[in-house]
Each structure stands twice: as C-alpha cells, then as structure tokens.
Design goal:
Blueprint lengths: L1 E2 L5 E2 L7 H21 L4 H17 L7 H17 L14
Antiparallel strand pairs: 1-2
Helix pairs in contact: 1-3, 2-3
Length: 97
Amino acid sequence: MARDEHSTWTAPSERPTTQDLDRLLEKTRLRIEDLLWRHGCAVETSTGLIREAVMALAHRWNRVHNREQWFLDRIEKAVRRTANPFLMEPRDDEEPS
C-alpha cells in the first residue's frame, strides 16, 4: 500500500491503467504473434480474442499474480477453441470411452 500527502493508506488500483495494459501487450506481443501464427488464426478473429483476454484480465487484475502467463494462457485457450470448434472436452458426468 502507498501513502499519499495526507498520510492515509490507499489501496492499490483494482483495475489496470492504460499504461499497465500497454506494458503487458508490449511484453507479450511476440509470443502472441507466434501463437496466432502457429494456429493459423485470422487477424479478424485474433483481434476479438485478444480484446476478450484483455477485458477478462482487467476484471481479475488484483487476483492474478502472473499476469503475463495468465493472459497468454487465456489467448491460447481461445485460439484453440476457435481453430477447432468441434473439439470438446468431456463433461464431468460422462464416462470415458
């Protein structure tokens, strides 16, 4: 926690600043590009997936310790679902075949 001019404690920001998000995107840009290239993800699709991942992380900002990894994992999961929409994980109540 940080102190302001009046010596009162202020809580850390619940949400990331624009600068926080810019830094995150800059640090992960090459890995995101590689991930999208490997999966053959179209630019139109990837823009939406990245936007959704940014919004999801922004809502969890103070609860996520390794933000870069969480962000990359979120994008990769979304890309995999988009690249192969018919690949479904079995439900908990289904028996393996």
